[in-house]
Amino acid sequence: MSTPSLLILPGDGIGPEVMAEVVRIIDWYGDKRGLKFDVTTDLVGGAAYDVHGVPLADETMAKAQEVDAVLLGAVGGPKYDVLDFSVKPERGLLRLRKEMDLFANLRPAQCFDALADFSSLKKDVVAGLDIMIVRELTSGIYFGEPRGIITEGNERVGINTQRYTESEIRRVAIAAFELAMKRNKKLTSMEKANVMESGILWRDVVNEVAADYPEVEVGHMYADNGAMQLVRAPKQFDVIVTDNLFGDILSDCAAMLTGSLGMLPSASLGAPMENGRPKAMYEPVHGSAPDIAGQGKANPIACILSFAMALRYSFNEGEEATRLEKAIEKVLADGVRTGDLLAGEGVTPVSTSGMGDAILAALDASL
Ligand code: IPM
Ligand code: MG
To answer: Isopropylmalate dehydrogenase-like domain: which residues (predicted)?
Structure first.
């Protein structure tokens, strides 16, 4: 097979600095494990707007469609708040998700032992937590029509539409059941079937798919109760499947259970390509964090763990993914901390590249 290709889109804010550490990890795999990647770098978000006047150039979109996987940093920043909605940095990200048809967004929330104290919840509630949120990513209220701001009489009306077809629900449900089969065979679906027709359909279709997975224990929860349960007793969950908007909110909530938003990776997967690999984009769950951008303070772990997910889900290198995850676990156990992970006094934070150095050293030690 030809050398696998990666498109790297560092984006805005802390995106470029955390992605720089990922590039060092990629190089390590090329040098030490013979895993070479053909890497191209391009612009997305505000960085693309500054050059092209749009948050994602057509040529970049075309490249994203061709490569084996896209790695994205983060988009957005206060500088771009004034832009028209249609060219805001986030539109670049949403265009990638939509046009690549990345319908299954995997957002694992894992609490590293060394960080259980950093959670805002009690240690015993989160220690050992390992859940996977599967968020539908290409439909629902994020994309539904009609949408817009119209004028009715003498006032403005903001409109968005929650809309799901059966097939959209079915394919993400199948992705979630497949994951559940590889994990603990437990799946919780979250919607608002008590108030939304789209929620009733969601529940129906999940139950239809469940018939093909008799080994999986399926539960349904209203999303508001799900949010409450996530902070009350998160370890009751294993795989959670939910729509685009609920998934956005519940995954931020789940992320914080683990101590820091700076720790959580994600994979957005679509249908298999001709070479059998899924269409895929990998990105940290955190945003562009403009308040600390450019200062070398950001935690690169979420972005590095996103590359680990790429190794596992795009390149069938599960063992190498585990090697990288173990290296990060070791570094954290050794007490290496970026600023976001410092709860107590007397610990000096390492810089973004300092964290990269420590992870590379742990990778070397793993050989
Ligand atoms: C996320 C983000 C995005 C979303 C934004 C940046 C468009 O919050 O990936 O969770 O709402 O999906
Ligand atoms: Mg979000």
So the answer is: 5-359
Whether residue 251 is found in the same domain as residue 273:
no
pLDDT tens track for 1-55: 689 999 999 999 999 999 999 999 999 999 999 999 999 999 999 999 999 999 9
**Residue 243 a catalytic site member:** no
> Domain of 90?
1-103+264-367
Evaluate if pTM is beyond 0.90: yes
CATH of the domain at 194: 3.40.718.10
One domain for residues 166 and 272: no
Q: Is residue 111 part of a domain?
A: no
Active-site residue, from 27, 252, 326, 357: 252
Same domain, 243 and 313: no
**Of 257, 274, 298, the domain-final residue:** 257
Q: Kindly report the CA angle at 106 between 250 and 303, in degrees rounded to 5?
A: 95
Residue 296 marked as a ligand binder: yes
Ligand 1: which of 14, 56, 93 to mutate, judged by most atoms within 8 Å of the beta carbon?
93
Q: Which amino acid is at 363?
A: L
Tokens representing 156 are: 């403005």
| CA distances (Å), origin 31, targets 27, 28, 299, 352 | 6, 5, 24, 22
Residue type for position 266? S
- If one counts the domains in the chain, the total is 2
Q: Which of 206, 232, 257 is the last residue of a domain?
A: 257
